[in-house]
Amino acid sequence: MSGRRHTLLGLASALLVLAADQGSKWWVLNGLRLPELGNVDVLPVLSLTMVWNRGVTFGLLNSLGASGSWVLVAGALAAST
Fold first, then answer.
1. Distance between CA 10 and CA 8 in Å, rounded?
2. CA-to-CA distance for 76 and 41, rounded, in angstroms?
């Protein structure tokens, strides 16, 4: 495969993953209505519970409140220079 084909395949794969991610989130919020229900038992050992993550991955920087966003911006700017 040429470099151009790899790039196109990578972009198509990224778009497919993005569509699946956003589609599943839409379904949970609007189709399943999990925010209204709060908890849905899927299997005896598996349930979906609605929580909102106000921080980044695993709630990192959540305790900083609104200033956590500025810490992330500062970190991104520092990393990009």
1. 5
2. 39
Residues 70, 76 contacting (CB under 8 angstroms) = no
Q: Strand, coil or helix: what is 39?
A: strand
Helix (H, G, I), strand (E, B) or coil at 7: helix
Residues 6+ apart with CB under 8 A from 13: none
Question: pLDDT 10s per residue in the chain (81 long)?
Answer: 688 899 999 999 999 999 999 999 999 899 988 989 989 998 999 999 998 876 666 666 666 777 777 777 888 899 987
d(CA 59, CA 31): 26
- DSSP element (H, E) containing 71: helix 67-80
Place of tokens 């919020």: 29
